């Protein structure tokens, strides 16, 4: 069970099923320390939240019932310049920004070379803290090794997305891709972020699918930044 989970979606994402309050209560029940709100950015056709929604997240207290609540977004890379679907002003109001390509957000795949360039531009823009589910690159193909190396060089975290990992039951490309990502993290002496990608409170913090795979993937506890809250907050630029 994760004690820190920065990837969860509320009803504001349009296809998730729990509220902010319900997530906080579940986190308290699970004795978690930190959760992060990361609804889909307004460029998503399913998202219910406009940019105003993300700017107003600051009205939620930092600590609720003993749970540290971070305010973030899972933004969408929307063009070849690596721009995302929220403004710099909104980025400045959030605790963190995770992003990747997503379907139905205005960006159509331009092929591996151009997609890779767009992703690296997004990483180097200074607006991103986390690349969400980088190993899921089948729909929007890109050079995963180059993307992971660029993220490590820019101190942008790579996410081991638990929902995406579970898809490896049916998709044989996923585990090899995870190993590519973890190899880059290891070579650059960085740490990986584990995120549930929860779409309801029952998925929050659930790492049960990962546990038996850790040895196979070569993932040690010392490589997981969730285990080091101060270091995580430092990478995100958050004052506790």
Mean pLDDT: 97
Low-confidence stretches: none
Share of β-strand residues = 15-25%
The CATH class is Alpha Beta
Structure report:
By secondary structure, the protein is α/β, with parallel strands linked by helices. It has a single domain, classed as Metal-dependent hydrolases (TIM Barrel, Alpha-Beta Barrel). It is 31% helix and 15% strand. It contains nine helices and eight strands. It has helices at residues 20-29, 51-55, 88-93, 112-124, 144-153, 162-166, 174-187, 214-217, 229-236; strands at residues 4-8, 34-37, 63-64, 67-76, 96-100, 130-131, 157-161, 193-195. Strands 1, 2, 3, 4, 5, 6, 7 and 8 form an eight-stranded mixed β-sheet that branches. The two termini are 22 Å apart. 49% of the residues are buried. The mean pLDDT is 97.
List keywords for this structure.
240 residues; 8 strands; 31% helix; globular; TIM Barrel
SSE topology:
Elements: E1 4-8, H1 20-29, E2 34-37, H2 51-55, E3 63-64, E4 67-76, H3 88-93, E5 96-100, H4 112-124, E6 130-131, H5 144-153, E7 157-161, H6 162-166, H7 174-187, E8 193-195, H8 214-217, H9 229-236
Parallel strand pairs: 1-2, 2-4, 4-5, 5-6, 6-7, 7-8
Antiparallel strand pairs: 3-4
Helix pairs in contact: 4-5, 5-7
In short:
This protein has helices spanning 20-29, 51-55, 88-93, 112-124, 144-153, 162-166, 174-187, 214-217, 229-236, and strands at 4-8, 34-37, 63-64, 67-76, 96-100, 130-131, 157-161, 193-195. With 240 residues, the chain is α/β, with parallel strands linked by helices. It has a single domain (4-236), classed as Metal-dependent hydrolases (TIM Barrel, Alpha-Beta Barrel).
């Amino acid at each position: 069970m994760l004690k820190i989970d920065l990837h969860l979606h509320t009803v504001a994402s349009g296809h998730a099923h729990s509220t902010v309050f319900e997530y906080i209560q579940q986190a308290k029940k699970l004795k978690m320390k930190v959760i992060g709100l990361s609804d889909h950015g307004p460029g998503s056709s399913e998202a219910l939240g406009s940019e105003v929604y993300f700017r107003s997240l600051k009205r939620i207290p930092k600590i609720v019932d003993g749970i540290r609540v971070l305010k973030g977004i899972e933004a969408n890379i929307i063009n070849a310049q690596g721009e995302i679907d929220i403004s710099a002003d909104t980025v400045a109001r959030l605790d963190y920004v995770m992003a990747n390509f997503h379907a139905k957000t205005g960006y159509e795949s331009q092929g591996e070379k151009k997609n890779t360039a767009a992703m690296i531009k997004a990483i180097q823009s200074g607006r991103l803290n986390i690349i969400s589910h980088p190993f899921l690159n089948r729909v929007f193909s890109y050079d995963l090794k180059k993307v992971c190396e660029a993220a490590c060089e820019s101190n942008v975290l790579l996410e081991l997305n638990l929902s995406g990992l579970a898809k490896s039951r049916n998709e044989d490309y996923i585990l090899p891709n995870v190993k590519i990502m973890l190899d880059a993290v290891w070579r650059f002496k960085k740490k990986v972020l584990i995120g549930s990608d929860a779409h309801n409170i029952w998925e929050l913090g659930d790492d049960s699918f990962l546990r038996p795979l850790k040895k196979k993937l070569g993932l040690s506890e010392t490589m997981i930044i969730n285990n080091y809250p101060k270091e995580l907050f430092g990478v995100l630029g958050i004052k506790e």
